[in-house]
Design goal:
Radius of gyration: 20 Å
Largest sheet: 5 strands, antiparallel
Oligomer: single chain
Strand content: 15-25%
Helix content: 25-40%
C-alpha cells in the first residue's frame, strides 16, 4: 500500500500491517536521516474522506510525532524529520550511536478531523485544504483514476531501462552488448527520479 524512502538509501516496502487502518515501517536510524519520502503505491485507493496520517517515533522515544499526510491529491510527500535539540549534545551523540530503528507509523484517519493538525504544521495553508483535497475524486460523480497494474509498472520500468541503455549498446548488429557501468548509471538515475517524483511510473510517459 505504501512505500518509504530515505534519500541515499534503498527503497523500503517492508511494511507491517497492524490492522486494516494502521501500518508501520521500521527504518534504519544510523546515520540519523533528515528527510523522508512516503508515497502511495499505484494500486492503493484510500477510503472516501480519508487521509493517511504519517507519524514518526525516533529511537527510544515514547510518543509518535505527526509529520504530514497522504491523500488523493497528494499521493506522495517529502517530509523533514525531527532532530535532537542542538542545546543537548548528549542527546545528539546518543542518537548517532543508537542503532535502534526509526518507527514510521501510518494510520487512516478522518480527513476533516486531521485537517487542523496538519494546518498547524503548515500555517500558510487553510485548515480546510486537506479535508477538501482528501474528498476530491471520491465524491458523487467524481472520476477516480484507475490504478496501474503490476504488469504495466514492470513494462514501464523495462522501457525506461531500455531507452537509457540503448545509447550505450555496441558491437555487431543482433549481438549488441551494454557495459555494466551503464546499468549502474541507469539505476542511480532511476533511484534519483523515484526519490524526487515517486509517482512518475503511474504516468504513461516515455523515458
Amino acid at each position: 500500500m505504501f512505500g518509504a524512502l530515505i534519500p541515499g538509501r534503498p527503497l523500503q516496502t517492508n511494511i507491517q500491517t497492524l490492522s486494516p487502518t494502521h501500518f508501520l515501517f521500521l527504518l534504519p536510524s544510523s546515520p540519523p536521516p533528515t528527510s523522508l519520502v512516503v508515497f502511495l503505491l499505484p494500486s492503493t485507493i484510500l477510503p472516501p474522506a480519508t487521509a493517511a496520517a504519517i507519524y514518526i517515533q525516533p529511537p527510544r522515544a515514547q510518543a509518535f510525532t505527526l509529520l504530514g499526510a497522504l491523500h488523493p491529491s497528494a499521493p506522495s510527500a517529502l517530509l523533514t524529520l525531527p532532530t535532537p535539540s542542538d542545546e543537548n549534545e548528549n542527546d545528539t551523540e546518543s542518537m548517532v550511536l543508537d542503532d535502534s530503528p526509526l518507527t514510521l507509523g501510518i494510520a487512516f484517519e478522518d480527513a476533516a478531523a486531521l485537517a487542523p493538525q496538519l494546518a498547524a504544521l503548515q500555517p500558510c495553508l487553510p485548515a480546510s485544504s486537506v479535508a477538501a483535497a482528501a474528498a476530491a475524486g471520491v465524491g458523487s460523480g467524481a472520476v477516480v483514476a484507475r490504478p496501474v497494474g503490476t504488469k504495466v509498472l514492470a513494462q514501464r520500468i523495462i522501457r525506461n531501462a531500455f531507452n537509457f541503455l540503448g545509447s550505450f549498446a555496441g558491437g555487431a548488429a543482433g549481438r549488441e552488448t551494454v557495459p555494466l557501468r551503464a546499468f549502474r548509471e541507469w539505476w542511480l538515475k532511476f533511484e534519483k527520479r523515484l526519490e524526487l517524483d515517486p509517482a512518475f511510473l503511474e504516468r504513461d510517459e516515455e523515458g
